[in-house]
Amino acid sequence: MDNPKLSYAIMVGFKSHKMDYNRGIKILFVVNWLKRRGAEQQLFYFIKELPPHVDVSIFRFSNAADEFPELFKLDKVNIHSNRYPGTYNFLRFKSLYECLSQKRYDVVITTGLGAALFFGRICAFLSGIKIVYSLLNTFENFHNLPTLPGDYFDILNKGLNTLILRLRRGKIYRFLPNSEKLAAKIRLAVNGYPVHTLHNGLPTKEFEKLSTNLSDEQTRSIHNQFEGSPTITQVGALDETKNQLFTLECIKEIKEHIPNVRYLVIGEGGKKPELVRWVSSNGLEKHVIFAGQLNRMDCLYLMNKSNLLVLTSESESFPNVLVEAQALSLPVVTFDVGAVSEIIDHGITGYVIQKGDQAGFKKYSIELLTDKDRATRMGKTGQERVLGLFGMERKIEKFLSILEKDSLLNSRL
User: What is the pTM of this model?
Assistant: First the structure.
């Protein structure tokens, strides 16, 4: 991070906390898994851009061999795996506690809900960790443990929230949701537990590489299929949640207004056979391109070659693809789900519509595909906005600022 004043302040703050700055700040992230999904990709780029004096380890409750290979290749990261598999195996507690006992960590950061949030906070407390943060990045609790109607936390974590508020003397706990909207939801579910928003960050260095990235033959072949045609792109797993079928139904009518429209679908998933059959039965083979799963740079390359990005998900938290699209100067049309209204300035950088609004989707998509001046203006404004609000450098600076203040506060407790 190129901010010497802040770096000096961080150094002074941690020295006053009696941390050995020469050995760095040791952080353990506790995660449920390291799948290749938006939350894990965000964690990857966040860790990758942390300054050198931050020593990072990850404890994961899963032990699958095919999880996010890029994270395992980071030289600055040590990854520890749970030795006791099983969804309801409470020996996972033992595995994490052993990990914490072997090395002295200054900070524990849990990510997500369920076991990571519950066991992470308990083991951190028992291990004497003074600062415990919880990164929250989903609007719904999908854990198997029951919740009461309207509750955000499962029963175990709900009880732990209350217990921590009573026993936290000499320790600092904080929820760090990735949007203001999620922060507001969490505040309704807790009573006095500190909540501080930490927006997702855009890895701008990846976009700087895009101009020099050499795409492979397959990616160039995909581009050839829509080059010169007004193209709508959608990125995400092919499943019920991402709802590509909605877009397909709209494309069927959009092509009546724009005969050469193309719809580029990037991603893989269980719904693909059904979507392919729907395209065939509706005579849209000429208009729809299934690109499959692509690496990040090829995905950004194809997005950059298209004209409009859409998101029609039934649910989202902080959809990183919207930030990425705007960083590429793409206008967007999106359902109003999760933190979308914080990312998109409706009518200025794109259009935000209610879920299922086919009329609005078709109207705005046609407008942005045919009115190039408006699309260019929205794209440029969106790029300026996201680079100013959601750069990864900004996220890291804010995180280190929170950590500095908490370390100073903890030294006085």
Answer: 0.85
